[in-house]
């Protein structure tokens, strides 16, 4: 008989005509039953004792919706971890990582490994991105199991499946919960599990049993969501991008022809070794007859618009869920939107970070910026609260695998591809330019000038501002900040001997400064001085002299401006190297006297200026006597040397003590004499 009877026993009574001749039974008995015996009661009633028969043994089956992938690239360390962690009774484990990093593909391979090594184990694939998809998957399982009562419109399908999974006599099973990204969908809320069955709890977590005959593997982009179901962060394995060998193998597997070239590694690097991006690129190359890896890489690098088009290109992939996009941009924008919904301040942090260099992002700078924009810092004693807010934002981005902390305490990093897709996402609602301007303002505050004492910070920040060199702000409002960044960058590069790039940047800085601040603004004159020093280092003395004189003339308009001595010193040195000794001598004397008045006779800048003055006097004397071959060679080499102490006086005001009023008349006298001397020119 074909139907299931879930009661332990049933009693059916039928009257008989006589004790000797029981009545014939013509009705049907449904269920897996046996007649355990009969009894005859007084009055001629025959009782049939009917009980459930032995349960029918089910053949293990799988609901994994994908066939084995012939292009799969083994990631043995991850698969070994899954096998080890899912071997325990009632085990739960989770794979966490960026969308498109290969979590689901690894889970599929694990399922087929189980089918091979443990054929008696049933495998259930549950797509869990939403409550509706979870319920749909459980209904499919109920149908495959032919659970009684499932066709009742009022049946609690989720509970029916859960109860079956909890029953150890039903055999071993493994479940994959794919795409558990929403914390709230599976969050357990206190008291909801105690609600009556006719009012099911909002949380779906109660329908995931922890029975010793089953295990659950979770895939998620969200570490917090995964930890809530896996039993803590210790049961999580982070899936990173592929290594070089794995990326090469995947690209080779996906291409129609083995057409790897010398550009292959460059392409993989450009794609950050993300499996979905590699698969997408291979599909694009396969689709176009004349497309090659080299041509694809050229298009990828051509400009941002072309790169966006390539990363947005979508084509059906039977290896992925129907609802999942095969576009890298769309795949990651799902995470971006979820973060913006869950924690807008974390989305703001992601937006700002997308403009940094992907490596070595200084966390301290991000934290300071967070404090400046946080409303809480306006209240006394709320700095700790602002720091806590930043930590929550950063942890949210880490939970989604969008940023990662490094072993260095103060820096973090991102995938360059994630940054680019973040900027595309920002552009979709016209926020990209605004966030770029916020980044420019931040770097203008943080990047110091190129003095030696600032080299460590310059070295840290220079990679982050390099992208700005060719990115002039679209509005005049931020031109001043951009000019400052370029000036300080050129200053540092000149100090470290990178004259060519320093020259190019310094010219841009000067042009931007003149437009933003005017020709005689003191910040513009700093740009003039930096460019003059760069030109001098390149041997372009005539151009350098013109700029030095311009800087000096501009600073003379503010007689007591601290940078005036800088211009005097730099011009003296330049004229010294051009062997215009008389004018250089007057300027050296003016500069050294000024330093004595401002800084004292023992200050390093005063001493350096006097030392160059003395050296020049010796050179002038030797030249009158006729230089030796050796001295000529030394002089040629020295022409490109710059007085470091003199260069560091670009911001003398940082080192100058307050002057007493008794020095005021001396300063005025000094600048008056200086102006008179600058009116005379040497040979």
UniProtKB/TrEMBL annotation:
The residues covered by the DUF7779 domain are: 340-424
Indicate, by first and last residue, each region the UniProt record lists as having compositional bias (Basic residues): 674-683
- Polar residues: compositionally biased ranges: 1-24
Compositional bias per record (Basic and acidic residues), positions renumbered to this chain: 621-643
Q: Where is this region: Disordered?
A: 1-31, 619-683
Query: What superkingdom heads the lineage?
Result: Eukaryota
- What InterPro entries does UniProt report for this protein, alphabetically? DUF7779, NLR-like, P-loop_NTPase, TPR-like_helical_dom_sf
The record's section on PANTHER family has: AAA+ ATPASE DOMAIN-CONTAINING PROTEIN-RELATED (PTHR46082:SF6), ATP/GTP-BINDING PROTEIN-RELATED (PTHR46082)
Full protein name: DUF7779 domain-containing protein
Species of origin: Eremomyces bilateralis CBS 781.70
């Amino acid at each position: 008989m074909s139907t299931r009877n879930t009661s332990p026993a049933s009693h059916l009574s039928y009257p008989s005509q006589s004790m000797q001749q029981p009545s014939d039974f013509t009705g049907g008995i449904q269920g897996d039953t046996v007649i355990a015996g009969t009894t005859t009661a007084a009055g001629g009633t025959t009782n049939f004792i009917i009980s459930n028969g032995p349960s029918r043994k089910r053949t293990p089956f799988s609901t994994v919706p994908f066939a084995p992938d012939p292009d799969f690239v083994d990631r043995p360390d991850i698969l070994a971890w899954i096998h080890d962690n899912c071997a325990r009774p009632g085990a739960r484990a989770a794979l966490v990582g960026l969308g498109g990093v290969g979590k689901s593909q690894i889970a599929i391979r694990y399922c087929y490994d189980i089918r091979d090594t443990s054929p008696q184990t049933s495998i259930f694939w549950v797509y869990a991105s939403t409550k509706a998809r979870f319920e749909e998957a459980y209904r499919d399982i109920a149908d495959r199991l032919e659970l009684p009562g499932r066709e009742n419109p009022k049946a609690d399908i989720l509970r029916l499946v859960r109860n079956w999974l909890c029953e150890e006599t039903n055999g071993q099973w493994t479940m994959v919960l794919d795409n558990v990204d929403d914390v709230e969908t599976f969050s357990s809320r206190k008291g909801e599990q105690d609600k009556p069955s006719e009012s099911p709890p909002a949380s779906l977590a109660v329908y995931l049993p922890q029975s010793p005959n089953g295990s659950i593997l979770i895939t998620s982009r969200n570490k917090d969501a995964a930890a809530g179901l896996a039993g803590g962060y210790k049961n999580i394995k982070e899936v990173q991008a592929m290594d070089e060998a794995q990326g090469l193998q995947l690209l080779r597997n996906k291409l129609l022809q083995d057409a790897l070239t010398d550009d292959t590694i460059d392409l993989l690097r450009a794609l950050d070794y993300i499996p979905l991006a590699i698969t997408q690129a291979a599909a694009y190359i396969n689709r176009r007859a004349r497309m090659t890896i080299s041509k694809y890489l050229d298009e990828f690098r051509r400009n941002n618009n072309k790169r966006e088009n390539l990363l947005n290109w979508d084509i059906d992939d039977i290896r992925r869920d129907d609802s999942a996009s095969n576009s890298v941009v769309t795949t990651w924008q799902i995470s971006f939107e979820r973060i913006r919904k869950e924690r807008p301040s974390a989305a703001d942090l992601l937006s700002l970070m997308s403009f940094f260099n992907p490596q070595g992002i200084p966390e301290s700078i991000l934290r300071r910026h967070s404090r400046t924009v946080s409303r809480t810092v306006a209240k006394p004693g709320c700095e700790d609260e602002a720091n806590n807010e930043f930590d929550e934002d950063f942890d949210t981005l880490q939970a989604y695998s969008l940023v990662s902390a490094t072993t260095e305490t103060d820096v973090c990093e991102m995938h360059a591809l994630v940054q680019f897709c973040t900027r595309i996402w920002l552009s979709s609602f016209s926020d990209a330019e605004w966030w770029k301007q916020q980044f420019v303002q931040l770097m203008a505050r943080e990047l110091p000038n190129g003095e030696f004492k600032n080299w460590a910070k310059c070295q840290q920040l220079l990679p982050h501002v390099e992208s700005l060199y060719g990115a002039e702000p679209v509005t005049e409002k931020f031109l001043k900040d951009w000019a400052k960044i370029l000036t300080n960058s050129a200053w540092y590069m000149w100090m470290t001997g990178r004259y060519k790039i320093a020259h190019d940047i310094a010219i841009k800085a000067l042009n931007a400064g003149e437009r933003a601040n005017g020709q005689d603004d003191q910040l513009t004159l700093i740009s003039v001085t930096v460019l003059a020093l760069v030109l001098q280092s390149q041997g372009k003395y005539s151009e350098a002299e013109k700029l030095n004189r311009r800087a000096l003339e501009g600073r003379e308009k503010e007689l007591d401006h601290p940078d005036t001595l800088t211009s005097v010193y730099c011009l003296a040195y330049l004229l010294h190297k051009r062997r215009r000794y008389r004018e250089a001598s007057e300027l050296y004397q003016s500069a050294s006297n000024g330093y004595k008045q401002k800084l004292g006779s023992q200050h390093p800048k005063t001493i350096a200026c006097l030392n160059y003055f003395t050296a020049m006097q010796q050179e002038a004397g030797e030249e009158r006597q006729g230089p030796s071959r050796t001295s000529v060679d030394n002089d040629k080499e020295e022409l490109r040397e710059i007085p470091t102490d003199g260069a560091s006086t670009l911001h003398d005001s940082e080192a100058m003590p307050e002057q007493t009023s008794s020095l005021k008349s001396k300063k005025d006298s000094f600048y008056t004499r200086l102006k008179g001397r600058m009116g005379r020119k040497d040979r």
